[in-house]
Amino acid sequence: MSTHTIISFRPQNVVRQLEWHFDSKVAVTVLPILLIFTFLAWGYLTQASAVTTTTYQIDGMRLELDQLRNQNAELVLEIAQLESLSRVENRARNLGFAPTTQVEYIQVETYPALDGDDIAPYRGSERARGNVDTYSPQTQTDSWWVGVLDDVVAWVDKK
Amino acid sequence: MKNSEELRYRIYIIMAIMSAAGLTLVGQLVRWQVVEHHRFVAMAEAEHRNEILIAPRRGEIRDGAGYLLATDIIQYDISASPKIISDPQDVAQRIAPLLDMPVEQLAGTLSGDEIWIPLVKEVPQAAGESLLEWDIVGIKAEARTKRIYPEGALASHLLGFVNGNGYGFYGVEGYYDIMLRGTPGYQKGERSPFGELIPLAASDLVSPKSGPTLYLTIDRGVQHFIEEEIERTVDMYQAQRGSVVVLQPKTGQILGMANFPTYDPNLYAQTDEKLYANPAVSEQYEPGSVFKIISMAAGLDANVVLPETMLYDGGAIEVGGRVIYNWDRQSHDMVDMTDVLAKSLNVGMAQIAVALNKDRFYTYIKRFGFGRLTETDLASEGPGTLKTPKDSTWHESDLGANSFGQGIAVTPLQVASAVSAVANKGLLMKPYAVQRIVDDERDIEVKPVVIRRAISAQTANTLTGMLVEALDRAESKARVPGYRVAGKTGTAEIPIPGGYHPTLTLASFVGYLPADDPELVILVIIDRPTISRWGSKTAAPTFRRIAEQLVVLLNIPPDTEQLVMND
Which fold, B220-265+284-566? Predict the structure, then answer.
């Protein structure tokens, strides 16, 4: 007859086979350390996960920003192609317009004199893009109307 | 004993060998860890770190009013690796509409066993981005920028072009190339085995900086008109080529610059390379009689002649052993200085140059900027050719020939710039094409630059009056109704080996208006016109047509209105 010693490596058997001494002092020391490590590990993993997620989000947004910039550039180009001179000229000619050949300058005697500062410089294309405030010749219109009304009142009085 | 000595000897040898090996090992360790420490650290880092370059956007180019003339767009080059595509038919059906290819043809291409093949180049941005989003195994979409000129051939010589590698050539693209390219950014960090950056690892990101937007001095309406006009002119007079330069004399701003034939910079690769250079700044020619403006300015400024000075024109004069004749080979008897200009008399001009003497004559020529670059901001500018008495090839006869624009080579921009100096009360301005440089951080306005005073303001005024009077006396076709125009025609013979071509000429006219307060200097050059060889019959009427339209486009009132406005 031979004797066989069977060693079981199942955790419950291992625990049963060991001499188990529960030292409350050790437990009091080890448990907080374990808790701290667990908390730190959890914190690290959470942070790492958040950083990774944010990094991917930033990359995605950067890509989206690039794509939007590129799409914007394409739209700007499309606008430029639509307002290109050759196209505009063709459209204008088809609509019956012709180039200006001679400008006749006329003097308007009753035209109110304006200070130089009141006259807005011609900035048509910039205005069209909304880069400058729209010039409103309110003062001129008012003065003109006031003049016309005065004339009408004077004419009625005379009558 | 003998054995013992032999043994000791062998031990010494072994020790020596081992010491040498040890020293070599130590030496190598010192080399790796001390001497070449940085190199090996860099090599080690390169194994697991990656640097991705982020290309910047090239700056835009716009005209003075803000209209877009050049910009970058993204396009995609599509390629495939058929060997790793599992279902070519399915892939072909999905991507064929985006690539604008027949499904059967694409499926056939994708069914091969090549490792890599290009499919389509320059696919629109939206299609490329869709392919990137679908992330199909075996299909690769590679982004690339492409320079687009939305106005096509408009101002092509002034703009230049950008090649496939992103380098600018000629014109503004060439001159401002480095500035327009911007500064590339990069992202550095640790990489995964697949070559991608690890998100959690330490990394540096430096964003790219786009190139600035350049605002040109030209107005696209003016440019469009002068391009149409020079094309029509070349066709009308059956000439080979033509050029027009329009300058603002008070600032040196280039308001327009056109040449015909021209090309579309969008299609530069399919264009004859000879058309790339801008003839108005890089090609030199003999100016002929328009140069008499400069010689007369020199004579007046040096007080050698006055407008009313009378000269005897016998029809020929010998200078340095060479006989100079008038263009009509006729004698004009006694003439004043305005007549010399009106009748374009070579003999009279040669007399002025001789009276000036060679030193003063060439000093004035140089003061007007001939023989050197104008230093304009357009690439590939030529300096022209000016022989002076200091050059070994110069001959006494050159003084007479140069006085009426022969034996000297100039660029159109030099002539326009020099005549601008007369229009601008004697001040020579630096011609320039970019008026504003704008980026995220700054908005730089380019200021006009005075190069030097060429002649006194008094001389400039006197000469202007003479030029106006000369056009009237000659009943020039360059005169514009309602405006006093100062100017001069030129009909230059074309130099060929051993002399000049018997029939072919280069006709030109340079002038400015309104003469009392010039806003425009216009130079018209017509190369080898065949309908008429004379500048007065070809370039002068072209000048008038251009000037008549430009005063409308640029809102320049006629002289009578100017007087009213000034009052």
Answer: Beta-lactamase (3.40.710)
